[in-house]
Amino acid sequence: MTTSSISILQSNESNRYTNIIGSDGGGAQPRKLLRNQNAETQELRILCFDLTYYNKTTQFLLSCAGVFVLYLLYGYLLELIFTKEGFKSIGWFLTLIQFGFYICFGLLERICDAQRSGVTTLKRNIPLRTYVILAALTLGTMGFSNSSLGYLNFPTQIIFKSCKLIPVMVGSILIQGKRYRTLDFLSAITMCIGLAWFTLANSQISPNFNIIGVVMITLALLCDAVIGNVQEKAMRDYRAPSHEIVFYSYGLGFIYLLAILLITDNFFNGLTFSLQHPRECFGYGFLFSLSGYLGIHFVLALVRSTGAPIAATVTTARKAVTIAISFLFFSKPFTIQYVWSGLLVVSGIYLNVFSKKYKLTLDGIPQRIQHCLFTMGFHAKSSSHKKLQGLQLIAQEKLQTIICSIPGRKDLILEPSLIKPLEHICAASWLKLKGIQRIFKLDATHAISRSAPDQVQLYMLRSDAGTFQRVMAQIKVAYEAQLPTWPEDSAFKYFHMICVPACFAYFHDMLEQEGLYGIVGLHRFNWDFIYLDKGVLSLEIPNVFATTYVNLDNSLLTAISQSLRILQAVCGKPDLVLTYGERSDNILKMLQILGPLPRKSEDNDRFTAILMIDRDKDYAAPLLTPSIYAGLLMEVFTYNAGVLEFGINTNKIVEQKLPIFAIPTEKQNKPKVKSSATDKPSIIRLNSQQDEIYAENRYKHFIDASSQIRAQAKLISLELQKLSNMKLDEMQDYVNRKLPKITELKNKLLCHLNASEKLIEMLGTNYRRTQALEEDILNNHSRKRVFNDIDELLTTDPQRYNSLRLLCLLHIWSGVTTDELIRFIRNYCNYFGHKYAGIFDHLAQAGLLPQLVEDGSALNRTASKLLSNISLNIPKFQQTAFQTNAYRLKLMTSSTDNDGDNGNDTLSATPSTSSASPSYVFNRIYIPLIAQLCTYLLKANNTEDFASKVAMIEHIKMNGCTIKLYNQSVKQGEVKELLPLNKLPILVYVVGGVTYAEISACNMVAKLTESQIVVASDCILAGSDLISSAF
C-alpha cells in the first residue's frame, strides 16, 4: 500500500543518498572544517525535525524506532479493519479515505516547506498530463493493494509486496531501456520461487484464499512498477520535490476514485457503512494513513543516514515482525513452508541489494568470498589498526570537555596550521553540536571582532611563545575597546586560549605582564596520535625538533610521553621497550612516573615492543635524498597532516631559490588569465585508503611509480574512448554505473601526473648529481672534491637548504673543519645575506655542524690546509662516532653497481633498484637506522643474539638498562626472556620527526619478516624541513 509513496520520495532523493551509499570507505577520513555547512553535511530532516547534527548512532536508532513503531501500527490497523465483518466490500472506499488524508498531509508539508525555504508561491514543476498518468497508476497501486486484503491474509500480501523488484525490473527494461546484471535476474528468480512456494502453501491451508486476491496484488505491483519508472523520469527531467508529487498524484487520484465510486453506485454504500462504523473507517483510517505517511519519511531518513543495505535489513526485519504479529494477534493457520519460502524471498532481496552496492557479477562472487575469508582469517592483524583509528574518539572527548566547560555562545578562531590536523579529529558539524557558532582562521594582522557583548571567543593555537604573544595582543585590543561596557561579572571569561599540545607556566606570566590574567582562560589540548595511514601515526607537532634539539628545550617531551601513555592504554603496554638517545630515555622515565597501566585481558593485538630513538642518532636518513615516490613528494611540495598541496608556481624548491635564479618556465611566461575555481592548489591525500593511486605507488622507486602512473593514465583514456562506440542504452548504463568512479580515478591520476612532472622539473637537473655527492660522502671518496662540489652547487643552484644539507651530511659522517665551515659561511652569506649567519650556530647546537671556534694555533691551521691538499691513497676523512656506529650496525651497503653512471644528470636517468632490501629507499647505499634495529629485533632468537649485534653501540637500552646488563640479567634468570618476538605489532617512535623513506624501509622489513611495524613520530618531515628548523 505504501510502495508507491516510497518510490515517489526515493526518486527525488536518489542522487542524494546514492553518494552516501557509494562513500562506504574505511578508517577515519579527513573532513573539511571551514567549508559551507550544506556542502559538508548531508541534510537529514524528517518533516520539521532536523536530525542533521545528531551522531550516526542517534540517527540510526531514531530512524529504526520510527520505522518499526509506525509500520507495525500501520499493518496492525490495516489488518484489524479488514477482519471486521462487511469491510471486504468497501476496500475502494477505504482507499478514497486514505487518499483524502494523504492530500491533507502532502498539502501541509508543501506549505511548511515553502515557509522554511522562503517561497511565497507554490509552483507546479511537472506538467499536468504527467500527473494524470501518475494519478491513475497511484490509484491502481493503492486500490488493488487495499482490496486484495479482502481475499488474502496479511502475511501473503506482505510477501507479494516484498517482491516488487520483479515488476520494477520488467517496467524499467520496457520504459527506460535499462540493463541489469545476471545477479539481478538471479535475485528476481529467487524471489519468484519463494513467492510461488508461499502462495502454494497459503492456498493449501488458508480457508479464505482466493485467486482474485492474487490477481489484485499482482495488478498493484504492476502499477507500482510502472509508476516508479514514470516518477523517476519525471523527477529527473523536471526536478520536482516529493511533496508536490504526493499532493497532485493523490489529489487527482482522489477525483478519479470519487468519480468511479459515484458511477458504480458504491460511494453511498461505502459512506453509509462508514457512518455506521466511524471508529474503524475514519479513526483507524486516519491513524494508519498518518503512520504510513510518516513511515515513508523514516525509511528515507534511514537510507540517507546508514545506506541502502542497512535500510533493507531494518525494513526486512520490520516485515518479519509484522508477519509474526499478524499470526500472534489474528488467528490463521500456519505451516513451516511459510518460513522456508519467506527466507527465499529475503535472500533474493539481499542478493539484489548487495549486487547494487558492491557491483557484483557472477564472476565477482568468488573474489568476494575470498575477501570475506581473508578478512575473517586475518582479523587479529587488522584489529590493531582499528584501535589506532579509535584514537580520534579520545581526542574528541578531550576537546568536548574543554568546549562544554565554557558556557555561552562561542566562536572558534583557529591558527591556520591547525586546520588540517583538526579535520582528522572532528568536522564542523560536530563543533556546531558542541556549541561553536562560527569558525574563523586566525589572521595575524586583523583581529576577529565579537558579534555580541556576550560572545565568547576561543583561540586554538600551537604552544609557541610568538603566536601566543600575537593572540594576546589581539585580545588586549578587543578588551580595551570594550572596557567601558565590560560586564561587572569579572569571574566570567569571554576570551579563552586552547594551546596545542601543552600550556606552559610562562604563558600565565605573559598574561600577567599584559594585564590579562583573569580575563583570559587557558586550556591545554593534546589530540595525541593522528592516524594518517595504515602503519603511520603522527602527533602533528612540527616544532619538536626546533624546540628540543635546536633550542635544547625539553618541555614538549611531557606531551609526547602523555600521548604514548594513551596509545599504550588503547593498544596495550608492551613487555619490551628499546630506547636509543637521551630524549628517548627521558620519555621512558616520564612514562614510568605516570604509573603502571592496567593489564589488558586480550593480548592478541597489543604492541609487543616499542622502539624509541632520538632524531640525532640517525641524521643521515633525513639528510639523504630519497628515491621513493612518497619521499620525493615531501621534498618538493608543502605538507600538512597527511595532505600535500601544490600549485602551478609554488613549491618548496621555488621558495628556497634566490629570486634572480628563479627562471620562469614556459607555462609561467604565458599571459595570465582570470583566475577561476579550477586554479586552486591541487591536493594529494597521502592515505592509501582514500587514494588508490598513492596506495599502489607510495613506496615504489620514483621511476617505477612514474611509469605505473602513466600506464594507468593510458588505460583510463582508452576506457573513456569506449563511450564513442557505445549504443545509447549501453552508454546510459555505463554513465550510471562506471563513469562516476572512472571520473574520480581520472582526477586522482591527473594530480599524480602533475606532481610527477613537477618533481622532474624541480629535481631533475641536479638529482643524480646530488645523489653522487651523497654516495661519495658515505664512501669517503675525495674529500676535497666533495667540498668543492658543495661550494659549486651553492653557486650554480643557490637554494637555502640543499647545499647546507650536504654540508651537514658531510659533518655528521666525517666532520667539517673550522676553516671549511668559515669558508662556506662566507660564500653562503654573500649569496643569501648576513642575516642568516646565526643559523650556523643553531645547526651546531643540534649537532649538524661543528661549533664555530678557532683552532689552537696558526701552525695547526697551516698543517690542516697542507693535509687537505695531499693526494695520497690514505683516508683523509675523519671517522665520526656516527660513522663508526653505522659500520658496526651494517647500515652501509655496496654501491659499486652505479659507478661510472654520470652521463646523464636528469631524474629520469636514475636506475630502478630492487626493493628486496630496506636500502632501496636510498638507491642501495644506506639502510635507515630504525629499519636495521627492527630487523635485528624481529630476527633475534634470544637476548644474547640481539646483544651480539648492538651491544657495541653506546646508549642503546632495553627496559631502561644497557644491553649488556640486561643480557646478564636474563642469563642469571633475574629477568624474563622476551625474545624472540611472536610477530605481534611493534611500535617505532622517532623523537624529532620521521621521513617517508624510513617508513618505507620499515614497511619492507615488516614484509620480509612477516611482521607488523607501526611507525610514529611527532611529525612527518623531509630533509629540507630539518634544515629549515634552524631558520
Any overview of this molecule?
This protein is of the alpha/beta class and 1031 residues long. Among the domains are: 57-356, no CATH class; 406-527, Sec1/Munc18 (SM) protein, domain 1 (Rossmann fold); 532-623 and 917-1029, Rossmann fold (3-Layer(aba) Sandwich). The chain contains 44 helices and 18 strands. Strand 5, helix 20 (465-481) and strand 6 form a beta-alpha-beta unit. Helix 1 runs antiparallel to helix 10, helix 3 (56-83) packs parallel to helix 13 (308-329) and helix 33 (767-778) packs parallel to helix 35. The longest helix is centred in the first third of the chain and has 29 residues, at 278-306. The radius of gyration is 36 Å and the shape is elongated. Belongs to the STXBP/unc-18/SEC1 family. The chain crosses the membrane at residues 60-78, 90-108, 128-152, 158-175, 182-201, 207-227, 247-264, 284-303. It is a multi-pass membrane protein. Keywords: Membrane, Transmembrane, Transmembrane helix, Transport.
Provide a concise account of the structure shown.
Residues 893-916 are annotated as: Disordered. One of its GO terms (biological process) is vesicle-mediated transport. The protein is built from 44 helices and 18 strands.
